[in-house]
Amino acid sequence: MISLARLKTLLGITSTDHDALLPILEAQAVDWLERQTDRHFGAVTAFDETTSGHGGATVWLLHDPVGAVTVSTRAGVGSTWVAVDAADFEVDGRKIVHTSAWPAGPRTVRLEYSAGYAVDAGPGDVENAIVAIVGDMLRTAQQSGATVSAESLGDYSVTYGGVATAAADSSVQPVIRKWRRVLV
């Protein structure tokens, strides 16, 4: 999400001492933030989702910002997928609206699309949170000499090296609350 050069600038780092470590910490911070929010903040990535049509005009993609979208439908599980003409649906953010209706039934709509951010082009508040997390992880590693590692057991997880500590950071929590996907 953030280039090494930009990350170093935002952290005020001018030496090359941490050039190997910073991209690892940045990737861990992005991964952690994605898990906290149920959103994709990484590079533009191809996604292939199958969802259930409900006979209505709208289905939703899981990720954004959305690039090109290809849609196929089928009569039911086991049936052949048939491409939907792009003139028959409209993309509105994560919402895909059919000109009439999507076929009702389980797993009847297949959505192939790209979503994500170009390097250094993500949302500013998310970038700031990533920088805060990486900075905290780097300080923790420098102070304790700890290596960065993660452990998990069931729903409980802890990351040594700062992600868990950064979660309590007052600048990170509002970002998590703002971007957290709430399913209803």
Record the SSE blueprint:
Layout (H helix, E strand, L loop, with lengths): L3 H8 L9 H17 L7 E9 L4 E3 L5 E8 L8 E2 L5 E4 L2 E4 L6 E11 L8 H21 L4 E5 L2 E5 L2 H5 L5 H7 L5
Antiparallel strand pairs: 1-7, 2-6, 3-4, 3-7, 5-6, 8-9
Helix pairs in contact: 2-3
Describe what you observe in this structure.
By secondary structure, the chain is α+β, with helices and mostly antiparallel strands. The chain is elongated, with a radius of gyration of 20 Å. It has helices at 4-11, 21-37, 124-144, 163-167, 173-179; strands spanning 45-53, 58-60, 66-73, 82-83, 89-92, 95-98, 105-115, 149-153, 156-160. Helix content is 32%, strand content 28%.
Distance between the termini: 29 Å
Order of helices and strands: HHEEEEEEEHEEHH
Q: Can you give the mean pLDDT?
A: 88
Q: Helical stretch count?
A: 5
Q: What level of helicity do the residues show? A: 25-40%
Radius of gyration: 20 Å
**What is the global morphology?**
elongated
Strand content: 25-35%
Let me know the number of strands: 9
Strand order of the largest sheet: 1-7-3-4
Decide which structural class fits the backbone.
alpha+beta
Runs in which pLDDT lies below 50 for 5 or more consecutive residues are none
Biggest sheet overview: 4 strands, antiparallel
